[in-house]
Design goal:
The complex is a heterodimer of chains A (302) and B (152). Chain A is an alpha/beta fold and 302 residues long. Chain A is built from nine helices and nine strands. In chain A, helix 1 crosses helix 9. Chain B has two domains: 82 residues, 2-Layer Sandwich (Alpha-Beta Plaits), CATH 3.30.70; 50 residues, Aspartate carbamoyltransferase regulatory subunit, C-terminal domain (SH3 type barrels, Roll). Helices cover 8% and strands 36% of the residues of chain B. The chains are: A alpha/beta (302), B mainly beta (152).
Chain lengths: 302, 152
Amino acid sequence: MKNKSLVAINDLSRDEIVKILNLAEEFEKNPIQNTLCQKVVATLFFEPSTRTRLSFESAVNRLGGRVIGFSEASNTSVTKGESLKDTILTVANYSDMIVMRHPVEGSARYASEISPVPIINAGDGANQHPTQTLLDLFSIRKTQGTLNNLNIFLVGDLKYGRTVHSLLMAMSHFGATFTFVSPNELRMPDEYKIYLEEKGLKFSEQTDLNENLDKADIIYMTRVQKERFSDPVEYEKVKNVYVLREGMLQNTKENMRVLHPLPRVNEIHTDVDKNPKAYYFPQTMNGVFTRMAIMSLIFGLE
Amino acid sequence: MIQKKQLRVSAIENGTVIDHIPAKSLFNVITILGLHKFDNLITFGTNMESQRFGKKAIIKIADKYFANDEINRIAIAAPHAKLNIIRDYTVIEKRVVEVPDHIEGIVKCVNPKCITNVEAVVPKFKVLDKISVSLKCQYCEKITDQEHMVYL
């Protein structure tokens, strides 16, 4: 991984994923390290973000590095019409690594082609967000003790949700069984089902969130967004169907944990928050350790 | 008995004949090869009857021979095209086109939110299916199929 960019989750092999997770575990035990001492990391956020930007910046600070960057494009030369190419070539002179979120799909791959310093994709539109997937994997492994042969329930917008697609691809290295829970309009696209079939992995689909929850090791919730529906009536019909409430966790397994990439709107009722099976806030903490590991490996730490 | 067949597009002495182009793809082939910028003598015919395609087109380019990677660029528009290499009014070689594994700078990505449609970035694709010709963008990872192809 040394000096390489991280653009998409499928750029990483199974072994590389495991290596990142192992190192993240070390950072969790000993979070204050100097692996980024003397390094400058630029965080270029052309689009708003709370967790991703702050956890990257927290990770750099904890590792003794320095951060430069911006959290919105409006006070940069982008508003004067500067191209992404020119922005990247400029910022590369000021930093040793660029962490970038950009609304245009494929922008991170392009930046990685032209940049003399490594690029970490912190989200390129609806396309890829690999560090989210890695922190999801870290959270799953930490709570279950393993990544192998788990029952993963993916809930909500399975059609457009980039986090569920990337998680599915990454988990397929470890032999998971998937249950897809979504309204008909937002079902998992065929290309991912074909992918699982080719890998010999089992999956099933259901529209009712209440069904089979007792079998789940992980319930991964996502937001059902109004703007995804062509027919507003359809949205009104389903908007309250995919809401997880505390009572629904009653017969779930002891080891089961609820994950969510956040931000949440109303798909997890706040009464779930106090349940020990709710894991979405610790999950955000894991983002710091995972990003510490990713940046350290790219800077050549063995 | 010698059967005389009337040529609808006149023969060339030396050069290349590209046959079995689907009629609807003729102008795409011309664009991809940049024939509109050539000074050579070029003749073409279109909407000719073909048992295989219904309507086909043919292009004859005098004094021009193509390298394989140059001609394979037309494969996404005319995957069944056949080339006849002509010297002294005689076909000395027949070639077929081959759909390449990767293509660059021929068609646009179908995704309006793709970086290749926003900045001056040359589109690059991995060819997923060589028969129906579907292309996966190397930037945004979306798939462009034959039906939605727009040539640059």
